[in-house]
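Ops channel
N.P.: pipeline sanity check, posting one input/output pair.
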């Protein structure tokens, strides 16, 4: 089972307000543009948000790779992750 302190340590981030704030891929070690929250309902058990924009699925794959978990590029995981993360635009 993952815990926030272990995730923060692996990503060289910090725990704040029930989430991990960490450097996103391509950012300096001092930046904290990525948040990671534990969520049993989310694919892979994590919700990843990028405050700086970018692809949240690529960031989640990076996080899971650092943690030694399955890759988000596994087809079944990718489909469920996209359904969980992306919202369909409302049509007029």
């Amino acid at each position: 089972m993952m815990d926030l302190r272990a995730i923060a340590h692996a990503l060289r981030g910090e725990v704040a307000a029930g989430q991990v704030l960490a450097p996103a891929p391509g950012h300096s070690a001092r930046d904290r543009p990525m948040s990671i929250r534990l969520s049993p309902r989310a694919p892979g058990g994590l919700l990843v948000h990028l405050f700086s924009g970018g692809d949240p699925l690529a960031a989640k794959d990076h996080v899971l790779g650092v943690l030694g978990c399955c890759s988000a590029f596994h087809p079944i995981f990718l489909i469920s992750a996209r359904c969980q993360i992306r919202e369909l635009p409302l049509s007029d």
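N.P.: looks fine end to end. The first helix runs from residue 4 to 11.
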